[in-house]
């Protein structure tokens, strides 16, 4: 198991329950909100990238023993105004009015202080450097983890010890952990990582073919195929159909 030995089955149970709450209560409301600009799929997709960010945000928050709901909402809302994959420094600020429309529909018991922390975390997640509280810290960590997998890990950009462990570790092991707990194929993060290895680190294709990365990639590609085959019997297609049912509702 990816987690350290000190992480118990109870921790995994809390993580699963909190993520299931997001899937069942929060995500459907977001998908029904017409002012949302974020696309469902793609590099910054609501059903790909944001799902992964929510999962990691919950993980990082639980590791700090903090109230998880503000982190779930900050992660769920952070890219709602990002309608394309290019750089947009204002998409965090522009997501706040959309989040303000959605929060009352969720019927959650949030204090004004918690709501302010959610909005501040969303607004500053693109350009913020030093998180002022755990909500900002967990969102920024969860959002930036993929960048470390894709490019280079730098400890100074991370708030929590758990995020530093995940961002500096194996993306394959962590994505496998995510899939095992949720029965959702978080393959988007792996595809991004593989793309970075092939196209960012090797300008000459022949250099890649004769590198250890090529054999590492083939090995994990075969493992992913076996992994997805396993999910034929454990709800993979059920969850895939559920994803498309969101889009049709």
What do these coordinates show?
This protein has 249 residues and is mainly α. The chain folds into two domains: 9-169, Hypothetical protein af1432; 175-248, no CATH class. The chain contains twelve helices and no strands. The radius of gyration is 18 Å and the shape is globular. The protein starts with 8 loop residues before the first helix and ends with a helix. Residues 1-6 have low confidence and may be disordered.
What topology does this entry show?
Layout: H1 9-32, H2 46-63, H3 69-77, H4 91-106, H5 112-124, H6 134-150, H7 161-167, H8 171-182, H9 187-200, H10 205-209, H11 212-231, H12 236-248
Helix pairs in contact: 1-2, 1-3, 2-3, 2-6, 3-5, 3-6, 4-5, 5-6, 6-7
- The CATH homologous superfamily name of the largest domain equals Hypothetical protein af1432
Mean pLDDT: 81
Low-confidence region ranges: 1-6
What is the first-to-last residue Cα distance?
36 Å
**Total of DSSP H or I helical runs spanning 4+ residues:** 12
Q: State which percent range the strand residues make up.
A: under 5%
- For the record, what CATH class of the largest domain applies? Mainly Alpha
H/E element order: HHHHHHHHHHHH
Which architecture of the largest domain would the CATH scheme give at its second level?
Orthogonal Bundle
Largest sheet, if any? none
Q: Radius of gyration in whole Å, from Cα?
A: 18 Å
Number of domains: 2
